[in-house]
Amino acid sequence: MKTRVLVLYGLLAGASWQLAHAGYIHAKAILAQQLLERSWQRSLQGVDAARPWPWADTWPVARLRAVRVGVDEIVLAGSSGRTLAFGPAHVDGSVLPGSEGLSVIAGHRDTHFEFLRELVIGDELQVDRPDGSSVRYRVSDLAIVDTRTDRMPLDASTSRLELVTCFPFDAVVPGGPLRYRVLAERVSFAGHVFVAGRRRVARERGFESKVESSANEVM
Amino acid sequence: MGASTTRKRNERQLRDDFGTEFHARRGTGEQPFPQRLARARLLHLRRRDTAANWLALTISIALYFLLSSSPVHANPMDGVRAGSLLLRGRGTEALQPAMRVDTEVDAQVSGMIARVTVRQVFRNAGADWMDGVYVFPLSEKSAVDRLEMHIGERVIVGEIREREAARKVFEQAQQAGKQASLVEQERPNLFTTSVANVPPGETVTIEIGYLEALDYDHGHWNLRIPLTLTPRYVPGGSATESTTSVERSEASRALTGFGTRPADADRITPPVDQGSADSQRVSIHVNVDAGFRLGSLRSLYHAVQVRDSQSIYQVELVEHQVPADRDFELTWSPDVGAATGAAVFTERFGADTYGLLMLVPPHEERTLASPPREVIYIIDTSGSMEGNSIRQARAALQLALGRLGSGDLFNVIRFSDRTETLYADPVPASREHLDQALEYVGALQANGGTEMLPALQAAFRMRASAEHLRQIVFITDGAVGNEEELFALIRTLGAARLFTVGIGAAPNGHFMRTAAAMGRGTFTFIGTDGDVKERMGELFEKIERPALTDIELGWPNGTKAELSASRVPDVYYGEPVVLTARLNSAPRGFVTMSGRSASGFWMRQIPLASARANAGVASLWARNRIEDLLDQKRAGANPDTIREQVLSLALEHKLVSPYTSLVAVDRKPVRPAGIDSVQSAIPHTAPAGSAWAGVQVGYPNTATPARLHLLIGLALLLAALMFIPRSAWARA
């Protein structure tokens, strides 16, 4: 009898703890982005490595927008587990978003990077940099990679953005080996041999003027 | 005040990493159901109910496990395997069959140089004319100097050109309908072959030749032929079938990035071949002429048969062709009595003589071989190290402390946004000190920011002992913002050696490498945090036994020698000193090599007259020189001057480099005007991964346990419901 009550209380306590924890993870993800907005503004004003709170080991490095799916998030430096709880994080070792080379941003599949599943090839992504400039990318490839065998090729020499999150999106237990990878090519990358091909594609698709204007913006 | 306390508390909570562990926290007292209800239920308990309730509980728990083990529910991505190519959007139906490439490798080993020929047979099985791009790995020490295109009976020899010029030549040939091929270097160990206008149903064979100086370690020579884009095949590990989005993306990068192909290459990038068995095969033949009888000859990952005639060994695969899913590695050692001590090879090229010099420092007893050292460990304990990284770094550091000899001195510095030293100055590695240090290291927690400069300054300020070789081991995963300041400090290092270890991601691979080179140490890169302990173990084992330090060379009077590397690195136990030099005169007299070994000053004279002529020495010198120049560029030398120097060396020695490519073009067009060729990136059979220039980073963990918590919570609630008796429901 007594046992029964204890079991009931135990179960209820356990249940509320678990639910609270789940809520806490999401609340943290949402709240942190609000807090980060402020330090992003400071970054824009030229503060280098503007830490959102004094003992933080991270700071905003970029702002990532996916207009079609209505996403606007602040990207943090360093993809450690703790940083990822606050926002999508730039993977150290890859170039900063918007720079020449491969830039990798990782995010949690159930919070900040849930939107990756909605991206399709051709979607436009925009990266704002702390210096106020922005760079556009176009999604060119979607793939699933296996962390047991794959590594990120960090020194690719074209300008690309790679967004990474855990896969499958709906898996219950975290820590699986698969990742979902969205690759985006920089629109109007000013490589000399490259531009001709791009323009042609652009013409076919009918947005040449757009491509050219963003080329000016970038340069 | 109140607000700030709240914020602090929130932050403390925020700082708790969410792991899969469930922390027991306060809150067990919270009761969403009134006590009254529970009491009522208690009164109405029946034995029968109990049994049913336990059953319900069991079911709920089972339900939870069931749910958590089935990964996806009705996701369109189901059934897609790792590395699968997913193409969406326009035109995806029209995928072209890829061209297929078979590879034959033929290696001629002569002394300590291997001349390797890689024959790539491009087979176009389709009905269209095809162009192809094939990405393949070669040894990172390779000097690629030869390209031949075989079309039927005809052979077209490739020429070395500046990269852009070569590409232009290739593109023009492609448009004109001529058969052509182009070999470019993407990374020191990664190359691409492009072929144009392969007729339907036919083959084109591309032969690529390279030279390589063989590795020598602990008495064994070693030839490695990379066949996959994996870092290394692990014996006993399963060759996974997941192929490679990495390499496909590399292929598509090759397609898009350099402009040979239209920018809509993604549309035509073929799916990666997952049926590893029969798409790509390789045959290997090695001819070993070591110059002495071999005591052992062994292939590490492939079954081979060996024929021996007069100390020349023919090695072939037992199965004639094998899937290219693992690297080929061959090692051999001399027969007893023919131990390698020193060897000199020379080659005349143009007006100069080039020399390759190898010397194995004296083997000393293991106990003798450790000169007394003074090791300062600097460890990053900033917040980003939290989790596995700090745990493994702690373990590795404890391992290192345990290996210190009684004559050694040591100290530990930790840094985050502040620096803390264990002792003011290095102390003897006595039992007592070691116990203190082990305890200190064991208690290290990761927290705070990353400020490196004060930590390095602290290490440099410490009193140095004259009899000890000072080694600084710098372990971090953080970003470096103030490179120049740090470099300026490292220049004052003096006789000390600096070993850098980058954990997790290497934000500052360049900084770490350059710093280590300036400090005459090594850079250890640990891409995935699972490797920390093992890789650090290797590093510590190596650095505790430097065989020879402060190496200097003396050339005979009148001979001017230009070494390929600007500084001779320390040599560790079991390794040889290998140097290439350009000499202004024919070799005469002796070269003197001196250095500091465990037992004191060490010197050795090597007669240059005994040098054997060996083709390829000049190319190897040029290749090493180019590598050194590129390192200088990375270290901040003027890129334009470096480019110019590399370019002239590469053109002179016909070497493929970042600025030069080999291109071969047939004379007459073969593709009829009006028919277009189809582009094709050729898939790999490789078990994925990649072997780019050493920069590899594991993927971070990107899932939270939120969903798991939610489900467990719901399951527990469900279980709790079962404990409410029917009467309670009725009353409600």
Characterize the structure shown.
- The complex is a heterodimer of chains A (219) and B (732).
- Chain A has a single domain, classed as Sortase, Chain: A.
- Chain A has helices at residues 2-44, 81-84, 192-205, 208-218, and strands spanning 60-66, 71-77, 89-90, 102-106, 124-128, 134-146, 152-153, 160-166, 178-186.
- By secondary structure, chain A is an alpha+beta fold.
- The relative contact order of chain A is 0.11.
- Chain A contains 4 helices and 9 strands.
- Chain B has 732 residues and is of the alpha+beta class.
- At the A-B interface, helix 1, helix 2, strand 6, strand 7 and strand 8 of A face helix 1, helix 2, helix 3, strand 1 and helix 5 of B.
- Strand 6 of chain A pairs antiparallel with strand 1 of chain B.
Question: Secondary-structure blueprint of this entry?
Answer:
The complex is a heterodimer of chains A (219) and B (732).
Chain A (H helix, E strand, L loop, with lengths): L1 H43 L15 E7 L4 E7 L3 H4 L4 E2 L11 E5 L17 E5 L5 E13 L5 E2 L6 E7 L11 E9 L5 H14 L2 H11 L1
Parallel strand pairs in A: 2-3, 4-8
Antiparallel strand pairs in A: 1-2, 1-5, 3-4, 5-6, 6-9, 8-9
Chain B lengths: L1 H14 L19 H9 L3 H23 L15 E2 L13 E11 L2 E11 L5 E9 L5 E9 L2 E4 L1 E4 H13 L2 E10 L2 E9 L4 E11 L1 E3 L2 E6 L19 H13 L7 H4 L7 H4 L1 E9 L4 E6 L4 E6 L2 E6 L4 E2 L4 E7 L7 E8 L2 E8 L13 E8 L7 H15 L6 E7 L3 E3 L5 E2 L2 H12 L10 H9 L7 E8 L6 H8 L6 E7 L5 H10 L4 E4 L5 H12 L2 E9 L6 E3 L7 E2 L4 E7 L6 E8 L2 E8 L4 E2 L3 H18 L4 H15 L6 E10 L7 E5 L14 E2 L8 H17 L3 H6 L1
Parallel strand pairs in B: 2-13, 4-36, 19-34, 21-22, 21-25, 25-26, 26-27
Antiparallel strand pairs in B: 2-3, 3-10, 4-9, 5-6, 5-10, 7-35, 8-9, 8-35, 11-12, 12-18, 13-16, 13-17, 14-18, 15-16, 19-20, 20-31, 22-23, 22-24, 28-30, 28-32, 29-31, 32-33
Helix pairs in contact in B: 3-16, 8-9, 8-13, 14-15
